[in-house]
Structure formats: structure tokens, C-alpha cells
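As promised in the previous annual report, we have extended the structural survey to additional targets. Below is the entry for Cadmium-translocating P-type ATPase.
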Amino acid sequence: MNKVHSWLHGRWGVPLVSGLLIVASLVAGQLLDALRWGDALMVAAAVVAGTPIVIKAWRALTARVVGIDLLVSIAAIGAVIIGEYWEAAAVTFLFAVGHALETATLNRTRSALAELIAVAPDVAVVLREGEQVEVPAAQVLTGETVLVKNGAKVPVDGIVSGGTGALDEASITGESIPVEKTEGDQVFAGTISTGGFLQVTATGVGADTTLARIIHRVEEAQDAKAKTQKFMDRFSAWYTPAIIVLSIIFGLATQDVVLALTLLVIACPGALVISIPVSIVAGIGRGAKDGILVKGGEFLETSAKIDAVALDKTGTLTQGRPQLTDVVPLDPGITRDELLQLAARAEAGSEHPLARPIVEAAAELGLAVPGLPEHTDPVPGKGIVATLDGQRIAVGNLALIEAEQATLDRAGQDAGVNDRAAQTVQELAAAGRTPMVLARDGQVLGVVAVADKIRQDAPEMVRRLHAAGVKKVVMLTGDIAPVAEAVGAQVGIDEVRAGLLPEDKLDAVADLQRQGYTVAMVGDGVNDAPALATADIGVAMGAAGTGVAIETADIALMKDNLLKLPEAVSLAKRTVANMRQNIVIALATVAVLMLGVIFGGVTMAIGMLVHEVSVLVVIVNAMRLLRRREHQPVDARTTTDDTPSRPRVAQPA
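The corresponding C-alpha cell record, generated without further manual editing, is:
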């Protein structure tokens, strides 16, 4: 009984009642020979199915919008007036069925959002005054300890403060393999424990969780309109009145009212109107399931045109955790440990990423690094100058050392040491390492070098980008040219632009755009913000837990997985191709049916049936985007020793 009630009051209520009245009319008219009752029931069927259509058309008219509902309303009312009751009932019934199916399938394409909402946790177990208390998830306070048991949903964003376990993070990152969590690891609301017991200190609750931000982004994105969709809306606003005028002229010219009304119904652009939004909703939904958040239809459409991708080196193509690889003393009066200790003491006051591996390496060897330098001056693009025990210590590239020697009037001294330093720098850089020369009061003491391991999936990412239609993959880095060239060669980068300052990256993106490329810039959303803003599409990678990246990037890749980048480009291209297929199907259907009406043979009911079938074809075609496309896994044997042809290296102007 409840099921029947839900059907009658749901999307299928109107077509169900209308369909039963049509059947009753046919029975009364054909079997019982009660033609009057048959006609009355057919009109009733048209009224039941047509009333919502007329109401919708009237509301649209009051808002000065002439839409498809007005065409159907005029045709149905006209058919009743001239006694074509079957035509009126058939048109309104088929339109009601089409609308119900359209709603059902659109809801299906929004399944990603429904699944995200479904995984949102309802309750949380919190430690309060030493006792476990179950409270609504939204009432957890920041800083409270939440207990996550095996099989439970994590109710908050937070940091593991105790215990171990494994979490299924597919709802956030799209990664299906559970992730091991131990003390200090970050966890996200909506993820599910697959084993273990975790104590989590809440850092984000309610609307401040990553899951809530994702749901909000997907909601906005699926409602946002692409450029093509905006054009179609404008097209429909002119097309519908034009069809009404054409039908009136056609009716007056032929003196055939039925033919004019049929033309009205046949020309309904229903499939055309829905062709684009259904593809966009499906494409964005598929991306959300895979951990790819697209800001809206416009950005999805632009992403399909991407033919150049700009990538930062550190943390994108490399792991972002450089390690000390070489310590080369060049002055006979200093040992290897003394050189490393001096470099570590100087770098102790630096915020540069390359300072950390030097300081850590010294600590591992037990070399004392007491306190901070008396003074530290960072030199952008060159290195640092620190004051230690009254001595001026410079650590950086050759340009910094030459500037130091010139400042201290020592440019003419130690020419041999300078030559050996330059040769050492060249050799280390050619090996893909980042060398730094150390000088004390202008006197070169030696060279230290660090290297950042190339990510295993970087070469495969470049290959897949090319396969997805990207013509040029460019690496933008502040590193020196030989190091950048070595990394680019191992990864397969098309062009390397080295020695760039942050503002140079912006210029590099703008230069690619001037060359006619549609550019995607991949960065962390903070340091690369100017370049991300300038690019046609800004991509934030590893955005899980980073609210700023989710809100500001045009595309946010929730998992720090390079292969998600070509997957996003491929998804955008497939979605736009799907939109174009749907437009062709819709226009071809209308054209064929109109020819059928003009030259005879296509009735109002047949035309409406074909029209509704075309709507379903468009929707089913769009739903193909919801299928996951599996890629070949990255070959585990891929190493950073594979060296493709060397890329072209461009120095900053």
C-alpha cells in the first residue's frame, strides 16, 4: 500500500493515472462501443497529464520565458478543440513519461553527490570526562578526542592521537585501497574504518570538514552552466517563439490545423535542451567518484581544450623530500664533516626547502648545530648569506659566491678553487643533483649537493597526457638548468624552463598562452598562486584536507597521484565529445521529424513518441560517462634510470 501511495505521489503518479485513463478510453470506445465515454476518458487523460505542463508553461510565461512546455500546451489544447482527443492524450502522456524518465535518469547521473551525502557520518563516539559518549557528529567540538572503531565512519577531520588502523578513503580521494593510519596521520570525515581502533583529535567538524567542502563543490559544479549550455539557453529562447510563428504561418498557408499543431509538437527541442546539462552532470559526477573535483561545466569544457600542461618540479614530478647526496671539500684545511657542519649551521636559519636535508644529515651524523646564526639573509634565486661567529658564510649557487667575492674584494683570489668548484657543480648538476657552493668570507670551502627522487609515476603521467591529446608538457622550476634538464630527460618532459622565480612562472604560463596553447598549471595552490590564476585551468594536486585548494582551484585532485591529471583531461575531453554527440542526435531527430510532417506520414502521436525516444537516447548516451575507465597499471619496474631524449631547456629572460 505504501508503495502504491509513493508511486501516485511521486514522479510516476501523473503518467500512471493518465495511462490508465487512456487504456480505459480505448476499452470503452472499442470493446464496449461507448464512444462518448471513450472520448470523455481520453480528454480526462489529456487533462491529467497536461495540467502540470500548462501550469509550468504559464509560470514560465509570467517570467517572460517561452519554453518547450508552451509548445506542448498549445498543441494539446488545440487538439482537444478540434476533436483530436487521442492526439491530445498521447502527446501529454508521452511528455509526462518523458519528464519522469528524464528526472529519474538525471537523479542517476547525480549519484556521486548522493553517495557523498550518504557517507556523511551521523553520530560520533567522543571521550568526555573519561567516558564514551555518543553524540551527533555536528556537535563534536574542535579538540575533542573521537573514537573510531572497526567498521565505523570517521565523523570528523582530525589527527590520530593514539591507536592504529586502516581507513577506506575512497569517498575523499577516489582511492579504493585502504590506507594504514598511525599516530600523527591525518584522517577525514566520511572515511570508513576497515580494521583497528583509532583515537582522533578533531580539527574540523560539521561544515568545516573536507567531505562537507567536497559536497558543496559538487553541488555548485553540477548546477553551473558551460558556455555551450548558455548558448543553447539563448538559442531556445529564440527557437521556441520562432516555431510557434512558423506553425501559425504553416497552418494559415495549408488551412490544416492538425498539421500546424503537429509541427509544434515535432519541433519541441526537448532533447536539445537536456543534451548538455545531462552530460555535464554525469561528467562531474564521474570525476567526483574518482577524486577529481571540477569547479563547473565551464571549466570542464575548457579542460577539454588543454594542449599544454605546466608542472612544477619539486613536490610534483619529484617526491618533494630532497636528501643530502654529496659533501665535497675543496679547501685542504677543511674536512667533510666540518664542511657539512658549517653548511648545517648556516642553513639552520633558512626556510628554504633545501636547508632541511642538510640540517637533518648533520644531525644524523651527530654533528652539533647549536642555535641559529647571528644573522641570516636569504638571496632569492641564489641562496643564503649567514653570519656565524663573526664570519660571513654564503651557501648557494656560483652567482652568489661570485657576488660575495666581488663584495669582499676577493674576486681575483683562489682562481683554482673557483674552477674546481665550477667543475664540481657542473658534474653534480648533470647527475640530476642540486649543488650548493659554500664560502667563508669569500673563500670557497667546498660543495654540498641534495637530490629529490623522481616519482615513479611521473614518466607514465607524461605519456598519458600525450595520449590524451596534450601537445606540450613543460616543467617550470627555480632549479638550475643542468639539474632541471636531468630530471626532465628522465621523466620525458617536452620543454624545461629553469632558474625561474615565482613571477617568472607566471610569465612562462602567459608566454605559452601567447603561443596559442590552452594551458593547465599544476601547483600547490599557495606558492604557485599567480601562475595558477593566469593559466586557463588551475589544478591543485593532493587537495584532500586543504580547504583553500578545494575552493580556489578550477580542478582539485583529491589524491596526490600524478596519474589523476591525465585522467582529468581525458574525462573532460570525453564529456565534451558526449555533449556534441547529444547535440547531433537532438538536431537530427528534429530535422527528420519536421521533414516527415511536411511531406506527410508522421502524426502528432508518432512524432511525440520518436521525440521522447530521442530524449532517452541522449540521457542514456550521457550516462555512459558514469562508467569507470580503467587504465593499465604503472609498470613497477619503471625507474628513474630510464633516460628519454633530452628536452629543450629554456632559461628565463
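Confidence is low (pLDDT under 50) at residues 632-653. The radius of gyration is 33 Å. These points will be discussed at the next consortium meeting with the crystallography subgroup.
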